[in-house]
Amino acid sequence: MRLESLRYTERFGSVRINDLQKVLELDSGKKSETPRKEEIAVHKIEDEVIKDIEGRMAIVIPIKDEKLKLFEGVISGIPHDCLIIAVSNSQKKRVDRFRMERDTLAQFCRFTQRRALVIHQKDENLAQGLAQAGYSDMLDEKGVVRDGKSEGMIIGILLAMLNKKEYVAFIDSDNYIPGAVWEYVKIYAAGFSLAQSPYAMVRVLWHYKPKISPEMYFKKWGRVSEITNKHINALLSEKTGFETEIIKTANAGEHAMTIKLAEILPYASGYAVEPQELVSIFEGFGGILPTGSQAAAKHGIEIFQIETRNPHLHEERGRMHLREMLVPGLSTIYYSDLCDKKLKERMSQELIDLGTLQPGEEIPRPHLVPPPKKVDVQSFASFMKEHLYTYSVLEE
Amino acid sequence: MRLESLRYTERFGSVRINDLQKVLELDSGKKSETPRKEEIAVHKIEDEVIKDIEGRMAIVIPIKDEKLKLFEGVISGIPHDCLIIAVSNSQKKRVDRFRMERDTLAQFCRFTQRRALVIHQKDENLAQGLAQAGYSDMLDEKGVVRDGKSEGMIIGILLAMLNKKEYVAFIDSDNYIPGAVWEYVKIYAAGFSLAQSPYAMVRVLWHYKPKISPEMYFKKWGRVSEITNKHINALLSEKTGFETEIIKTANAGEHAMTIKLAEILPYASGYAVEPQELVSIFEGFGGILPTGSQAAAKHGIEIFQIETRNPHLHEERGRMHLREMLVPGLSTIYYSDLCDKKLKERMSQELIDLGTLQPGEEIPRPHLVPPPKKVDVQSFASFMKEHLYTYSVLEE
């Protein structure tokens, strides 16, 4: 893979926010000595470097009643050396869709001779293990894991930890293009290969997100992303005194982290999860509020933003209201201790102008699940040990 | 890459027609010893095998007034080690689109440090070289190369020959998905790696070809393909006495050949070009009509048909009439010396029933350009030698 080289980095305390880098070439061919004149503008990341990272990476696929053909396409695009972890919150009662997902994954893994895990979000052993290890914030009043994609993501992170992976990445199960899924993984690995800190994050920006109806129109920015990016940049600008547009991936669902970083971040519910990660990083490592991790602050946190070559084409499941998508993202900024009154007012006003908030109404506070590091991993691991084989799709 | 292993092959004289093989996994990871039990059902093709073939492959991209964003996406998906040969028949007068294509390609190649050729179909030196080398069938009354995609393909084959490539492949310039382009090339290389004969062809079947309007619908077979496949299979069935459905890629625009095979086939104009390749192979090597190449007959011709994982999404340029697309393809079967009266009548009747042919109207005969082997390659090469550098996008 060839990427544009890093041309610009902004610093916020010990956070290094790298400007957008574009993928130039999906497949950069055989290993070679890069000519010197190329190095200035372009990073060539050799296949063996990428594959080495893939072998240490878990790909978490949250899935909920998704079309099986799409799920099958997604898994076919994930490079072989990655560990697939499907976290399902699909129905089991009327039609056992979880069983179908498991069967689809098992058939794929049997033919391609690879390992994969699949777990249901409401798995009872999992819930018991979490409760025992002190992570009951994840559980609802019935004692099973709460609904929500971010809870699924955390289950994925924990399973990646139990499987001794060093990187964890997220890919949605509704992607139409297996080749785009493949590119996301290459981008994650390429980003990590450039990281100097063991606390790194790679966020994907879609080259285009086509609108497919009534005809193909290649939209560069979604409105929600545009507004969320604007306010998260304002949060930075007002603290540093320099206006910035550095954040271009506030809502990036396709993203990856080193486990070291993933385990020290809290996770917000629903559409708040991705912007919250950034806000939490800025809070914890921006040098303004007290840090939660001296070790991470010492190494610094590195954020990569990489633009795909493939367009993003995914299943449209009815119209989401602007409110449902926009308000949770902005709430992460609104309730940050970094956010001052002026910015709060600007955000409220914008939401009122857009008709997504009533005058006088308060923005709802995001629900935060504390960092996976809170779990007593030893206790969790020893409880889960005897159940782990039940999540493996291939008999071992 | 992992492919389904070959489960079934039909023989027609010295032609081996392999049944459809599906891509199971886009990226099969690090090199490894394949477990024995897997081998029965699955071919794992190692990256180094694929890359080695890519280094000997030219990718020909015919282009005509295509959106530059799409062209740029297509070239970004072609693995680095392949030689890109863009053959343009775009306008140069009012707006010099050829110049823009050249600039786009040059910019890409400068950053990615790769070679590429771009040539205009009406290039005067090319026309002179062809005339001198005895290939005036390619030229029109003005003495330049005729319009048409198949003429562009032949130019590509000739340039691949001059560049000592062993494989030549075709990819359309209107593909929306760079990751799908990448997969086509991997499929070509994977197919060739399985070939036992130096006369081999790989034809791509799209997993789905989505209709994008009014909403996403994943269509498996186009109507034109369905009808063309049916009649080409009938051609085989009636000669062998065994009914067959082996051909599933009669209209495959995405296909590749060894140069040895490419240079001995004639090429038909327009939508007839892809089915004509099959018909010509059946005529020349089916054991019924006299063969044009003893060497090829001895080795046998191998045809691979491989189904992608990615859907095929390309630019829709207005509605084509069924007639324009269907009649040329069927004409290649109709005018084959292998085609008997009964099949001719069935085809005419079907076209009349579809309203694409008037009763009593004769199916137009396809225009055939004789095989590139007809060219006196020595003479062509020595004439072109001093001009070749003008087609290279990077200064050498």
How would you describe this protein?
Two copies of one chain form a homodimer. Helix content of chain A is 39%, strand content 17%. Chain A is an alpha/beta fold and 396 residues long. Chain A is globular. Chains A and B meet through strand 4, helix 2, helix 3, helix 4 and helix 7 of A and strand 4, helix 2, helix 3, helix 4 and helix 7 of B.
Keywords:
homodimer; 396 residues; alpha/beta; twelve-stranded mixed β-sheet; two-stranded antiparallel ribbon; 39% helix
Share in helix of chain A: 25-40%
Structural class of chain A: alpha/beta
Strand content of chain A: 15-25%
| Largest beta-sheet details of chain A | 12 strands, mixed
Average pLDDT score of chain A: 92
Can you write the helix and strand succession of chain A as a string? EEEEHEHEHEHEHHEHEEEHEHEHHEHHEH
For the termini of chain A, the CA-CA separation is 34 Å
Low-confidence stretches of chain A: none
Ordered list of secondary-structure elements with their pairings:
The structure is a homodimer of 396-residue chains.
Chain A: E1 2-4, E2 9-12, E3 15-18, E4 21-25, H1 36-39, E5 42-44, H2 47-54, E6 57-63, H3 68-77, E7 83-88, H4 97-112, E8 116-120, H5 124-132, H6 149-162, E9 167-170, H7 178-194, E10 200-205, E11 209-211, E12 217-219, H8 223-240, E13 255-258, H9 259-262, E14 267-268, H10 273-285, H11 294-299, E15 301-307, H12 322-334, H13 341-353, E16 368-369, H14 377-384
Parallel strand pairs in A: 3-15, 4-15, 6-7, 6-9, 7-8, 10-15
Antiparallel strand pairs in A: 1-4, 1-5, 2-3, 9-13, 10-13, 11-12, 14-16
